[in-house]
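Model it.
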Amino acid sequence: MRNLIITQSALWTLAVALLAPMVACGGSDEAQSAAAALQGVTEVQSASGGSTCTLITAQELEAIVLMPVQPSSAAVSAGGCVWDTPDDPDGFVMVAVVSGDYWEKPNHSPGYKALSGIGSEAFVINELDGWKAGALLTGEMAIVVRVDVSGETEAMAVELLQKVVSNANKKDEEAEKKANVTN
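Modeled.
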């Protein structure tokens, strides 16, 4: 069963269980740019607000998971957001931004697959009845996504990760332009 029952303790446990299996250093210019857009994202948020939550829209999520999504009443600590799927009452989608200190590739886990072209390191893995994908953007910042809906696929998790990283890069570029205009 994929019920998402949330308590403060359960949120922390979920965040650690999903994010702790991610330590590397360095990063490409693209990865550093995306991470710059995410600095300071550590507060608890819901999908209706907060900087992590604005890294992907409901419409973008729906196009990826092929079903409607809605902001969840649940929030994940460590800079994460959760969306529920009304067509799949047990389903959810999660996006989290975490410190690179928690990055560790789950490369010893069955089904681990390294990804290229997303950040300095990236992976996708099937676990806990869903798909998880993560990318290390710099030694200081990582993004992890989880797709746990009926009919979820590896491709959905990878596409979601790519979209969130791309959107983070766009936000960073917009912030840089705005800073240049005001200076």
